[in-house]
Amino acid sequence: MKSQRLKQSLRCYGRRLRRVPRGDVSTAASDVEIVHLSWARIFAHPASRQAYAVDQSHEHYQLFKHCLQYLRERHPGPFDPEAALPESIMEGLHDSDNRESLPPCFSTLVLLLAERHCPPEPEALFTETSPNPPYDPSSLLDYILWGLFMLETADPAAGDEEEGPNEDDFYVVMLLRSISDQYHWECYMRNVAVWTPMPWSSTSREDSSEARAGTTSDVIANAPLLGQVHLIDEESSWLWYARSQYGSPVDIPWSDAPHDGHPLCKTLSGYISRRRIEARLTTCEDAALWISALSLGLLEAVMHARIPTSLLLVSNGREGEIFLSGTRLLQLLVGWLIAMFPARPEDVPTESYIQHGREVLRLIDHALHALDEEMDHTASILSRQGIGLRPEERADVVCALVMTIMPLCNIACEALWRDLPEAKTLLDGARRKTRAFFAASAISCQRRMHRAGWCPYTISLRFTGMLDLTLMSNFARLAPFVRSSLDEHKDCTESACVFYTITDPTAYIPRHDQAGCTCEYTKPPLDDVIQLLSEGVVPVVVYDGEQLCVRPAADGDYVAISHVWADGMGSTTELGLPTCVVARIAGLTRTLLPESGAFWMDSLCVPSVGMLRKRAIKLMAQTYEDAAKVLVIDACIRTLSLQGESWLDNLSRIAASGWVRRVWTLQEGLLARELYVEFAEGPEDIEERLGTKSAALQDTPRPAEPSLVQGGPQDFDSHQELWGPLVRFSDPLRLIPLDLVPILKFRSENLQIRHGGVPYGIPLRDIIDLLWYRSTTKAEDELIAISRFLPPQVDLDTLLSVSGPDIAQERMKSFFLQLRDVPRIFPMDPIAPRLSLPDFTWAPCAFAATSLLPDDQTGNGICTEEGLLAEYHVASFAQPIQIPNERGAGPTKDTDSFVVNLRLSDLDAILSLLFQFRLMVSLARTSQDTHFDALLFLDPELISEAGPGVPCVAVSLTNPGDATRDGESSEGAPQGFRYVGTGLLMRSSANPDHLEDAGNWPAMSGLSKQRILLQ
Predict the structure, then answer these.
(1) Residue 100 pLDDT
(2) How many other C-beta atoms lie within 10 A of the C-beta of residue 770?
């Protein structure tokens, strides 16, 4: 987001106004020019004869005139006094685009009107039964409020004056029409607001009432003023540690909110209320105060210290853009942690320390809920008219605030007050990925990285969805790896990286090690490779500086090379590789095996001949499993420095590398006895570097507390206990979470995998989890690439024997038939692409795109040639639910979705009100289905406590005439259902206004457990 745009928006019209007073202004001065106003010529209503005498020099009247002048210029007359207001103009004023284009004076006027009069029931804002607006004959605001009231309750074409409306009256009514909807929304927003720190929310009113009652003070007297000395040094290793454990704050746009020179407030609402008294009442000033409260106001209340803006503000030098520096915010947070940590009681915490902790946790919880509420839009401050922020820019502001508040939350809950029960509750809730602020932050980070040149596939939700906000904030800091040009990923999408997908193997040409090199190709003797493969022996090669020699793998140690073809090292035995590439690889392997330098590489040891190629592929798992070392060569990773970069940044880039994103490399990395990675300095045993090579760390006794000194976190072992799954480096000051690279985390948690201890022992759930975010050029390769980890009943030869035009789908069908016990959850996955084969449209066609993971609780069904035979809880409908032709976008680019309102059948009116549901159905865009007859559920519960809804499957009956309540057909066979699409059943809020409509909604039966055949 361009902060200059935000800055200009937040410094909008209100800066051109003098300070707007909050009360009414006396007009007793003798030289005051009075204008007399009434609604008598316009409305036929008893209140229309109320007379107003308004000071023309008053700011409110000047604002009123600015709005009228804009309407005159935008819609010049003349108008026929005998005619109604032109319909085209009135329609234009109700168009959302035109309302957004209105200048800020309109939104400022609306804000002032809401400050003057905001009824408690905005849905009935102007009716005969609603509270009347106030009446002060000198108040321009009251004049407009009564005009809005009569606009809704009286006929604007039937005034009481004989002369009738003039041209000025047309523009006044036009003004009423132009602000009416906005005023309604402003009042509604103020009434529904719960968490925003603005004074109208229920939380702010509660804080205010406590302060007025004297039960608590919202001011901290004699608070110290922080300075440069309170910021941890920017070169301190503490800063690296904090980034990896707590997150990396980003710059927060700043717009000159009135922060300095005010007392320190203990509440966010108090922070705004004390400053808003003196601020100009504009939506832009409100937005600036809101941002300031959720950044500086929160930090001051937490730290019990005043923070001058000069301590954190920086300019990026472009167009005068000013920010609260993300780096300085982190320096401040870490400085506060170091100052607070010695104050932690070793045994029994003091009451004051506990009280301070509870206040801090409450403040953080308040702030996070306020950000949720902002993204929920019902009580949004940043979406108000006149601010000028697009939805994605609002998300950028929320993301910037989240990236400061979450590190604060982590420090408070994990380091300082982790023993408080409230800390665990807050932290668990803050880390839920269903929070609205999480989605906003993820999308904002994606946009930030996309602008920086990252591949859309790399930063897609498939990847960012695996990250928490701590990891995400660190990724957003990094520049992308560029091979040749900044626009090399311009044709990539969120579903595929074109750069890493070789669409035409016949046009593929291996790259030389250096640009401009024209050396000849080197290849091993083809007959020697063929001879060994024919005998079922793995061939390896040795380069003597002139040629490649072939020998059996069993004759000595060798290095297996793991790489991706997109890096330019792909080939076959017949073609070989450029000599410069062979020499470089041989040099690397000789550093690992000085006595021989023998290595295996698919580009040299796998021929293109059909049967021999299949034989080499069958031996591939054995090849990597038997290798003394596996060496990862990746174009991105080999540019990383072990000395010049932090390990957090290095591992982040490894997580986004091509090697981590390809399906074939999963098996290669998992099976390695010793996993080496080529860095700028040469091959490195990455697990030795990470400290995860043995179980030694797990057996080492750890002190209960870390030792914190000025230099950094010295007792790194203890941090593993305090801050989750951490890893240790040779430099103990640099710790990072291993979740960044799931394959490395899995190896660290399953040490036996390196010693041949998992022949078929990796659960299908873990395989699918590790495949997530990976891809392969040929869809039919996925099962072959992970064949080593498939259950023993799945035969690789059978999978390789599948052929034909639908080889990928037929191979997956063969897999399910061999597997036999298939997880019942597979048909419910909302984003997995489906097989198009008859009786198997319920099955995913790729595990790498499967998002729902099976476990023991989800249970299995039996896969047969006729479909999936399994037990589900079935909810049926008396009449088929028709699928509409007009549908919205689905969860993936190849799916559509639509929503159906449902009720439970066999309930009286009151219970029907309590059990209202919304069903979102997603189905393939190419689907020819016209209806569905039932829903399938895993469990008997229709209400989810853990997520937004309960997943299900929409199905149609295969033999409607044979259907029975217990699921048995008339012939005793399981009831057949045909897969239509996935569903998500959500509980609707009980709304009495829907009671009459709910009676016409489709009725869904209660759940009955049935054994069915899904096809």
Answers:
(1) 61
(2) 23
